[in-house]
Fold this protein.
Amino acid sequence: MKSESEALFVKELKENQNIIHKICRLYTTDEDSHNDLFQEITIQLWKAFPNFRGDSKFTTWAYRVGLNTAITLYRKKKRTIDTIEFDSSFHKVTQDDYNFEEEEKLKLLYSAISELNDIEKALVFLYLEDKDYTEISETLGISEVNARVKMNRVKGKLKKILNP
Amino acid sequence: MDELELLKKDWKKQEGSFQQISEKEIYGMLHKGSSSIVKWILIISILEFIVLNGIGFFITDKEIENFQKLHPYLNIIEKFNYLILLGFIYLFYKNYQSICVLDSSKKLIKNIIKTRKIVNYYIYWNVFIGSFFGSFAFYDGFKEGYQKTNTNIEPLSDIGVLIIFIFSMLIVITLIFVFYKLLYGILLNRLNKNFNELKKIDY
């Protein structure tokens, strides 16, 4: 029988699943690994669900558990090859907003991100998700000042790849 | 437009492109087992505790009896060893309980590594105590062997026995060390790398 908390969890997760998909996209390179990591994050979220209190948003909580699972708990399967390039077919653009130059830049950017290490990827992810430095520093366990310094370095690294 | 702003815009656009998981699929996932690194560490650690403590069962009572008669004071050390085992199990459990996925990444990794280290210390302790007991058994075995075979070969001096013992112990310890480096190198490599990266950011 499905319990009340199970139903609540499934509903919340279904509504916010894109957060997890985005983390999987950043940390995996093929569909099977994407699904594997999605499942592991779901299991970890469910295991931690009894500790989830309504006073923080499900999403805040999902960011932390999701990233922690990707960085720490997830064991990459053998078939995952780190150097595979980011699947650029992922982002589909419609005809009317197609811009060749922008597309090329994006391809380069995504490929550059795939070369970053796990922690740098986490920083980029939190930046892309518009998280402030307080949340970034709390999520990763580093000081706010150093999070800012490191973020600037990573941004510089990405820009340098685009404009060598 | 700034490249990173362009990336951000594109990043937000992709939301619609993910294949959505249904409620039924999520329910299915909830009842699947985790394959997280913490689970692996727990399984391997329990196996190590069992194997290290199970070795005793393969030695017959008679052998132990004879050994104890020869070295009665070693009994005390054996009893003390059980206390040590309980201590290690308690420490391991306490550290294992402290692993919480809701902590910051740095704290989470630190707690996992700490938990793993407890088992490593337990193994070091076992190697030490094993060598200690082993040295007595080795010595006895050598003496007995000479008495039984009744050869004309001059018995080795105590120093000779000691040298052979140290040499065999070195081989055993090296093998154990290589095995663990390989096993935990594979298991903890990523964790250590990420932990060092986080530490580097703060220093």
